[in-house]
Design goal:
By secondary structure, the protein is an alpha/beta fold. The chain is 38% helix and 15% strand. The chain has two domains: 240 residues, Type I PLP-dependent aspartate aminotransferase-like (Major domain) (Aspartate Aminotransferase, domain 2, 3-Layer(aba) Sandwich), CATH 3.40.640.10; 133 residues, Aspartate Aminotransferase, domain 1, CATH 3.90.1150.10. Bound molecules: ligand P1T.
Length: 378
């Protein structure tokens, strides 16, 4: 089944009881057993719930992996995955990742003795040099948040496997519609499903897909042991949102391309970060490894006060954290999504106080351009 069809039909056996086209919301925390240990595959909803199972099957199918698992947030998916490792292990992490990922590793897992070290994953030689005998995994966002840097996933997978480590890819920005990291050699894909997969800014959830059953089963054990699972209502909302992922991703991308090109020609814009621009340093790689460039754009206006003013003036681009919903959002990463990075670290990475990030929605692109124009020129 091709992805556009899988998005519509995947993950479900039409309700055996009634034939209902939609997966029912099984709002039940527990399931009656005929005799001790004799049941229909469901015992207790932390372990499994049929609505969640449909979602888990669907995401596994979309990412072309063996085991799909749902979590209560993207951070819950990431944190549960980090529990695959032990005290003394080290994880290499792309240097510009979501601020929450940086925070949980440096402020929480570090206390338990799981070390993390941040590297420029756009440079495979730098990654190779960062490996130690304790390195068990590399975690990459590609494109990264918020600078949209692109890393060569196949090269990184090879590099990891040669050293006995796992490659974990946070595929939130592109989704399996545009990029399937497991087919490029990654071992585990993680998502903030809060974003494009849900698509309507109405839920918080996370997803994980393992390429191999063994890793998937270890993660399934942790999912149940830790218990950071979504309820059936949110699992259903995600199933509902995923049905239109193809249409939404195409619309996000078409608008993002137009917005990025327009920003690149604006007199007040110093730099634009969008992998779809021919001037992007990894444009060719992005075009080769993914089917599209996505809907996220960031740009620098060179002046912190101007950036703050632009963020306050846009009317269609709503000033808010998060991304991937049908509506356009604008944020100031240094003060919002990436505020948990130390200022000197942000500066070294290029996450300046004058950097703005756009989640380009599916509105009429002329309205989006007019909104940016009035905000930049006022
Ligand atoms: O918010 P949550 O569902 O827990 O997902 C965390 C997360 C993980 N990975 C990436 C790449 C993310 O962007 C996020 C969340 N990001 C935002 C809220 C944001 O505005 O960037």
């Amino acid at each position: 089944m091709r992805i556009r069809t899988a998005l519509v039909h995947g993950g479900q056996d039409y309700d055996p009881l009634t034939g209902a086209i939609g997966v029912p919301i099984y709002q039940s925390s527990t399931f009656r057993q005929e005799a001790v240990g004799k049941h229909k595959g469901y015992e207790y909803a932390r372990t499994a719930n049929p609505t969640r199972t449909a979602l888990e099957r669907l995401i596994a199918e979309l990412e072309e992996g063996e085991v799909g698992l749902a979590f209560s947030s993207g951070m819950a998916a990431l944190s549960t995955a980090f529990m695959l490792f032990s005290t003394g292990d080290q994880i290499l992490v792309g240097e510009d990742v979501y601020g929450g990922t940086y925070r949980v590793l440096t402020a929480c897992f570090s206390r338990l003795g799981l070390k993390s070290s941040f590297v420029d994953t756009t440079d495979p030689a730098a990654v190779a040099a960062a490996f130690t005998p304790q390195t068990k995994a590399l975690l990459v966002e590609s494109p990264s948040n918020p600078l949209l840097r692109v890393s060569d996933l196949a090269a990184l997978a090879e590099l990891c496997h040669a050293r006995g480590a796992m490659l974990i890819v946070d595929n939130t920005f592109l989704t399996p519609y545009w990029q399937k990291p497991l087919t490029l050699g990654a071992d585990l894909v993680l998502h903030s499903a809060t974003k494009y997969l849900g698509g309507h800014s109405d839920l918080v959830a996370g997803l994980a897909v393992a390429r191999e059953k063994e890793v998937g089963e270890r993660l399934r054990f942790l999912q149940n042991a830790i218990g950071a699972v979504p309820g059936p209502q949110d699992a259903w909302l995600l199933l509902r949102g995923l049905r239109t992922l193809a249409l939404r991703m195409e619309a996000h991308e078409a608008n993002a391309r137009a917005v990025a090109a327009w920003l690149a020609g604006h007199r007040r814009v110093v730099s634009v970060h969008y992998p779809g621009l021919p001037t992007h340093p990894q444009h060719a790689l992005a075009a080769r490894q993914a089917g599209g460039f996505g809907g996220m754009v960031s740009f620098d206006v060179g002046d912190a006060a101007l950036a703050e003013a632009v963020a306050a003036r846009t009317r269609i681009f709503l000033l808010a954290e998060s991304l991937g919903g049908v509506e356009s959002l604008i944020c100031l990463p240094a003060r919002m999504t990436h505020a948990s990075l130390p200022p000197e670290r942000r500066k070294a990475l290029g996450i300046s106080d004058s950097l703005l990030r756009l989640s380009v929605g599916i509105e009429d692109v002329e309205d989006l351009l007019e909104d940016l124009e009035q905000a930049l020129e006022q």
